[in-house]
UniProtKB/TrEMBL annotation:
SUPFAM superfamilies: Winged helix' DNA-binding domain. This is Transcriptional regulator. Residues 1-140 form the HTH marR-type domain. Residues 169-181 have a biased composition (Polar residues). It comes from Paenibacillus antarcticus. One of its GO terms (molecular function) is DNA binding. Keywords: DNA-binding, Transcription, Transcription regulation. Residues 162-181 are annotated as: Disordered. PANTHER family: TRANSCRIPTIONAL REGULATOR, MARR, TRANSCRIPTIONAL REPRESSOR OF EMRAB OPERON.
Amino acid sequence: MKDNDWERLEEVDWLFRKMIRRYVKERDRVTVEGITLPGMLILHKIVREGEQRLGDLAEQLDFTSGAITALCDRLEAGGYTVRRRKEDDRRTVLLDITDNGREMYERNGNIGARCITLLSDGFTEEELAIQSQFYQRIVSNLEGFSETLLDLAKKNSEVITPQGLGQKPRNTSKSSKYLSY
């Protein structure tokens, strides 16, 4: 690989990580009547599809079970949602919106749409289609990401010198203005 190819990869990696950090930082600064944007996303899903199982919310919105629990705690404390156990299966917890939650969502339902338009502002339809393809490919590339790197780290730790002692692999990374791992 040429040096300029490697620099381009480092730049793309750095910009990708910067984009994610910036998005999360900005998203987490927004609260609507005490509810974060991920909480608003939960309300949106309930308004559109009716009460939801907490496990389904976590899976469909790509949140951890701990994050869903914390978000639901805040929604419930604000009087926007109510949790109940399913009659025929007490292990299943359902989340539904209250009248207060529905009213709050009606007042602020335009915020989610504005969030999306802010992110896509200035892009043409063609550019958005290309972005979608890139994001799909990145998501696909992330399948097995951690396992692959953990396997590599394990193999690196098993490198043996001729004398039988473990040796650290030599550093092959190029010097760059982008911070690497």
